[in-house]
Amino acid sequence: MSKKTIIIIVATLIVVAGFAVFALRDTLFQSYAPSATTQTETPSSTTNEFAVLQGEDFDRSFLSNMIAHHQGAVDMAKLAIANAKHAELKTMANEIVSAQEKEIAEMSAFQTEWGYPSTSAENMQDHSAMGMMDDMAGMTAELEGKTGDEFDKAFLEQMIMHHQSAIDMAAPAETNASHQEVKNLAEGVITAQTAEIKQMKQWQADWGY
Prior knowledge:
This protein is mainly α. The chain is 76% helix and 0% strand. It has 2 domains: 3-41; 53-206, Up-down Bundle (Ferritin).
């Protein structure tokens, strides 16, 4: 075999080996890299579970969970009326109790009118709201035993998070809800609680929290 033939064979083997390495690398990358489908199907921590519900299913779940959510806000606000340092916070707490107790009554009436299970603690029929009730009890517990600036700081932190979760729950209602009453209620929640979040954040800055 001539020297020239040997060189050609070696060069050919090098080229073939190079292609094999690239092919192996691409195969391994495709095997371990998450696909676009996987990334889409894996919900992030901020995914709104209500966004996947439609029509009557959305309305039923929204009402049961929002009633429990509102009750948590009322419980927290009543603690603020008794324990907050700042008069502004007491005033907002009174407004939260008044507005959200009214909305709880409206939502409970919708449940009865539309034949949905009740969320009331005295007659719990919709167990999907039990997790929400537990979450609300945990937020209220964070405020118990606190007074003065310690209470006000904790209340603002907890209520801002609480309001934001209500906004997230309400956001899909415009397109997903079946009843116009639910759409209107959700719109009111978003408008009112967005404004209150803005005010509470301003107080955090003003009061050095």
